[in-house]
Design a protein that fits this description.
By secondary structure, this protein is α/β, with parallel strands linked by helices. Helices cover 15% and strands 31% of the residues. The chain is built from nine helices and 34 strands. The strands form eight sheets. It has an eight-stranded parallel beta sheet. Strands 4, 7, 8, 10, 11 and 13 form a six-stranded antiparallel beta sheet that branches. The chain folds into three domains: 2-11 and 504-606, Sandwich (Immunoglobulin-like); 22-37 and 198-495, Glycosidases (TIM Barrel), CATH 3.20.20.80; 60-195, Galactose-binding domain-like (Jelly Rolls, Sandwich), CATH 2.60.120.260. It binds alpha-L-arabinofuranose. Alpha-L-arabinofuranose (AHR) binds next to loops. Alpha-L-arabinofuranose binds at residues 25, 224-226, 344-345, 422, 461-462.
Amino acid sequence: VTLKIDASPKLARKIPDTLLGVFFEEMGRGGAGGLWAELVSNRGFEAGGPNTPSNIDPWLIIGDDSSIFVETDRTSCFRKNIVALRMEVLCNNDCPAGGVGIYNPGFWGMNIEDGKTYNLVMYVKSPQTASLTVSLTSSDGSRNLASITILVAGKSNWIKVKQKLVPQGTDRTSRLQITSEKKGVVWFDQVSLMPADTYKGHGFRNGLVSMLLDLKPRFLRFPGGCFVQGGWLRNAFRWRESIGPWEERSGHFGDCWNYWTDDGLGYFEFLQLSEDLGASPIWVFNSGLSYNDEVDTAAIAPFVKDVLDSLEFARGSANSSWGSVRAAMGHPEPFPVKYAAIGNEDCGKQFYNGNYLKFYSAIREAYPDIQLISNCDGSSGPLDHPADLYDFHVYADAKTLFSMKNTFDKTSRIGPKAFVSEYAVWKTDAGRGTLLAALAEAAFLTGLEKNSDVVEMACHAPLFVNDDIEKKWNPDVIVFNTWQHYGTPSYWMQLLFRESSGSIVHPTTISSSSSSNVSLAASAITWKDSDNSSFLRVKIVNFESVAVQVTISTTGLQASIDVLRSTATVITSSNVMDENSFSNPNKVVPVKSQLFDAAAHMQVTVAPH
Ligand code: AHR
């Protein structure tokens, strides 16, 4: 097989700076209990709904019916989070050892680490003087890692308690408990425990953010996906409810992925995350459509106004009405939102086109520089409405996605550009993240690089999954539990593309002397590193189960090749269905070696798969 690369400047083309990014959706507990470092699950006792009595899950009670009575009522000091927990201690001096109370096991346990600081905030009300013990313990409460005593002066109003807990010892599945040994009544609300050490102090779990940073994502698409749409409109993500002080956010039940989120990871935090990643924010907003209900275009005006407000929140000066809310949250500088997606997978619904046009013209007028993204696929024919970009989603088996590397070859070169905002191999071929999936996805990406005159952006989906949840969407890019994480082969594959955005792509042709089909995909890019050295990267995907001898023949290079700085990086494994796991996170990862025979014309053996 011969792979010809024409690296001459005349055929070179710059890839958009934004080509590759990441898509964060609140699904698979990727945010609440994942990227967002809050350790208390259902911190405001709102997850059971606003009516009482309500289910306080996963909070549980320490003590029995004769020693403690716990109930929910609607006496909170927070208007939007009206449910509070009332705890009545019935025992007095005869309480069981350690007292009675409540505990929260977090999201499948709290990762509490020796010597680290954890910030506790909670709201308490007690008409009589109360002495509360707040502890971090093992999951069964038998081992104490940290304890503090809080004295609550008897008052009829709520007080905010702020304390630090520094555990002695590590436990990956700890719980937070609040106990008392004295008769009396105490109310609790908004009980939060956050590690002091989060990324830039912004509340993001360090290890997970560093995985994202390593990908050098050029954009962050958020917050969904289906999460944006909702099964019903009343359960769709609403940015306005997710900003401001965390205690005052209402939280909501995301009925697409069927779990409650306190929206601690809200619109502001997504914008902050984009900034922290050096990624351009792509705000996907609800277009007035969900899976089961739609807002008639005749009544869409309030939704349009709401989106304009969200853009003012992000981009307005600190003196504007919504910009001042952002400034009060600690970010006086605007967030540079340059892209907005009008809905997600809504094309074809009764009111999509009508609603789309209303959003489109209002945003275009107020923010002419914002690139607007339509949900309708424009890859095979022109759209019937104006757009700067169109969404293209593909979930397919490996063979299909491999063959889709040519999808954009024939797409019209005029009109809106493609945003491949969700792509992945799924179902059988994907397992929980196989090498096979990564191979097909890599081939597909080489096609996007080559067609990046019409494909402006692309991102894999979904990004994160908490391994502890029962029902998982497979595969995902990053798998985590309370304290560990690993990248699936798709993650490591994407790492080999991280220099692609903004680089130069060169034409490649694959030819074979044998008559049998060659299942290879390839692309070639050049870019300049920070020290101003030029690099050529040739990526080859061998989709076959046999090794392939490839003659790489590069013409038009503007400089000689420095063998000492030439490397080969291989991702493969003995079985194409191999996956990474917590016990073997490095089973399928890139392996780098020096390429001693690097030359403009060279022979390489490309391993099977
Ligand atoms: O990525 C998972 C889901 O797939 C997204 O929420 C949705 O847009 C698509 O159907």
